[in-house]
Amino acid sequence: xxxxxxxxxxxxxxxxxxxxxxxxxxxxxxxxxxxxxxxxxxxxxxxxxxxxxxxxxxxxxxxxxxxxxxxxxxxxxxxxxxxxxxxxxxxxxxxxxxxxxxxxxxxxxxxxxxxxxxxxxxxxxxxxxxxxxxxxxxxxxxxxxxxxxxxxxxxxxxxxxxxxxxxxxxxxxxxxxxxxxxxxxxxxxxxxxxxxxxxxxxxxxxxxxxxxxxxxxxxxxxxxxxxxxxxxxxxxxxxxxxxxxxxxxxxxxxxxxxxxxxxxxxxxxxxxxxxxxxxxxxxxxxxxxxxxxxxxxxxxxxxxxxxxxxxxxxxxxxxxxxxxxxxxxxxxxxxxxxxxxxxxxxxxxxxxxxxxxxxxxxxxxxxxxxxxxxxxxxx
Length: 379
Hints:
Elements lengths: L9 E6 L3 H5 L2 H10 L4 E6 L4 H5 L6 E4 L8 H6 L1 H13 L4 E4 L6 H14 L3 E6 L11 E4 L8 H11 L15 H14 L5 E5 L13 H13 L3 E4 L7 H7 L5 E2 L6 H10 L2 E5 L2 H8 L4 E4 L5 H4 L13 E3 L9 E3 L2 E3 L8 H4 L3 H13 L12
């Protein structure tokens, strides 16, 4: 069914996820903003992803909700007051279109999203529907869910926006760090790399599915090799990302910027770096959003769905994925299923991946230069 020809007045986008997944919805939001310039567009998201949306210039309002409290059915009974408050907020929004930027992967997740979408009272509710579409019963407008093996998440989110009536206006990720963050990042750059190209290393991957992390020893070997090549190397992220273990394993410890950057500042710093070496995670998407070349280590997760994004129309990608490509990969988010977020007990896909191929990929990226193309960012 085609979406109504008349433009909506009030639109709600739903993406209750981490900041990396939020970034992957920005091309879809850009399409909605371009299609409906006079509409009010709000987004329902998590507190962690809220800064990405607030500074994107694509939405008018952000509704932050503690989604993690309700990841299990027990949370519904334990914290009903917040649910009732959210329901009142959604109903008061008087939305006439909802864009659900989530695949309906689990039964419980589909029920939660159905409750959210129906609570708004919006007559148009667009989202992904897999073959059979049993879990998509509450959607009025459906984009075909191609699964995690056949399409990047950005393409899937653009398909949801199209189902809601907004044709793609561009396919680049959008992040706007702002001038204050740019000033702080410039100071950090002067501190750690006043006269050399800066390579940033992020050894974490976010709180969900820590099985995506490559070993500290391997990251340390990459840091030492690039330091020996004459580059300034710095660790970024939070204390929970394992930077201390990487630094301890280095023969020549890199600069430590752990917990010294918020999201806007990290985006601005990435925009000034020559390269990011990382696992699959939100920082990888932040780097691609500012056009910084990425060398990403992938193990149990799908590079087809979550690899470093680069629109095909922008030419050859500057990003590289390093993986062993074992027959058992990926083992979580497989097809239309969640799979195993904790990976297998031995995690051979990462344990057997040596530092050499990652060092080689980093050297190729650095030899190719550090042009800033294909990004939308400030500062």
